Amino acid sequence: MISTGHILVRVPDQLSIPRAASGRVALLLVNVGFALSELADRQLAAAGVDGREYAILSILESDGPGSQQELARLLGKAPAVVVAAVDALEGRGLVKRARDPSDRRRSRVTLTPAGARTLRRADALADDAVAHLLAGLDSDGLRDLRDLLARGLEPLIAPAT
């Protein structure tokens, strides 16, 4: 366990990345994704959410109110998986559903004030986990990495609605 400023981060005991990945961007990104997945649920538990719920709260805040179908598309998950996650978030008062006035068959999902507070806490936990996982980078390096990834993935990032 290591303190990264806000929280104590525990990296899984079995976490290791093969040397073969060091010169291969695709393998580095895959390994970082796996490592973050390992850390996500454990770290985000302090905010009361798991990785999928964190992603949903983030989408609702940044991409605007959306239908459960839109959430499923943006998450790359089956609609039934998203419905179950939204049910759980709604049960904890983090999101609310309302019928879409233009199409009563659709439910629109929005972030509640409690959901926004939870998202802020989860963002801090996630940032700390990333900083720990990428301990070889200082804050400027982490910012540069974020900016490079955002710029490189810009064609795939959904435009604001």
Query: What is the end-to-end distance?
Result: 40 Å
**SSE-based structural type:** alpha+beta
User: Tally of extended strands?
Assistant: 5
The largest beta-sheet arranges its strands as 3-5-4
Give the proportion of residues in helices.
Answer: 55-70%
What Rg do the Cα atoms give? 17 Å
- CATH homology group: Winged helix-like DNA-binding domain superfamily/Winged helix DNA-binding domain
CATH level 3 topology: Arc Repressor Mutant, subunit A
Mean pLDDT: 85
**Fraction of residues in β-strands:** 5-15%
The parts where pLDDT drops under 50 for at least 5 residues are 1-12
| Overall morphology | globular
Order of helices and strands: EEHHEHHEEHH
CATH top level class name? Mainly Alpha
Number of domains: 1
**Helix count, DSSP H or I runs of 4 or more residues:** 6
Q: State the CATH architecture.
A: Orthogonal Bundle
Instruction: Report the sheet with the most strands, covering strand number, pairing sense and barrel closure.
Output: 3 strands, antiparallel
